[in-house]
């Protein structure tokens, strides 16, 4: 069984979110210092909305690979996937877990774009997990360990294959509701209120 957990949250995303929030705060502070209260009131809503959106999109998403399973924290929901429920791991557009009746994309681990795919070297796709390779030993650019999706997929496949080969995934049918989905209601409500306030401030 697994003894160590693996948590992944991209550093660049946190830096980007922090930069956007700081810029929004600087904008508000600048208007306050200038005494431009009319524009301060008008722009407070959109700046607050973009700051909150940046946190939701880039700061919060992450994936946690642990002994009991995989927890994926996306923008608007958290998905808890037990190991036996994982049928396939793919990296076509982003790291994605395929389970019975549901596929779980991992927002924190996107696959590379065209430029990133061109930069992939052969050394980056060697000695991956057996399940990473397709017909003719083909492999997706998103499986390269030089990419976010490939880094996480490598760890995930290694542990999933170890559990599979040890027989820990042969428990029979997956129970209904074993994949738990928890919406981020507070985030959804906050973004909804801030967006409504933004629209209202622009119309007035």
From TrEMBL:
Lineage: Bacteria, Bacillati, Actinomycetota, Actinomycetes, Micrococcales
InterPro entries attached to this UniProt entry: CFP-6_PH
Alphabetized UniProt keyword annotations: Membrane, Transmembrane, Transmembrane helix
Domain Low molecular weight protein antigen 6 PH intervals: 60-96
Protein's name according to its UniProt entry: PH domain-containing protein
Source species of the chain: Cryobacterium tagatosivorans
Transmembrane segments: 12-34, 40-59, 185-203
The keyword NAD is assigned to this record: no
């Amino acid at each position: 069984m697994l003894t160590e957990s693996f948590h992944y949250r991209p550093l660049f995303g946190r830096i980007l979110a922090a930069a956007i929030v700081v810029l929004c705060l600087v904008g508000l502070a600048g208007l306050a210092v200038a005494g431009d209260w009319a524009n301060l009131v008008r722009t407070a809503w959109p700046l607050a909305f973009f700051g909150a959106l940046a946190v939701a999109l880039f700061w919060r998403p992450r994936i946690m690979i642990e002994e009991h399973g995989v927890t994926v924290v996306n923008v608007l929901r958290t998905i808890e996937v037990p190991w036996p429920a994982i049928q396939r791991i793919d990296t076509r557009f982003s790291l994605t877990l395929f389970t019975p009746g549901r596929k779980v994309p991992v927002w924190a681990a996107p696959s590379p774009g065209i430029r990133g795919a061109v930069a992939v070297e052969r050394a980056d796709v060697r000695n991956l997990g057996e399940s990473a390779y397709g017909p003719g030993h083909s492999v997706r650019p998103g499986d390269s360990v030089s990419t976010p999706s490939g880094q996480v997929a490598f760890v995930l496949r290694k542990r999933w294959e170890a559990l599979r080969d040890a027989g820990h995934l042969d428990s029979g049918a997956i129970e209904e509701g074993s994949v738990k989905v928890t919406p981020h209601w507070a985030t959804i409500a906050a973004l909804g209120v801030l967006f409504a306030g933004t629209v209202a401030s622009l119309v007035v």
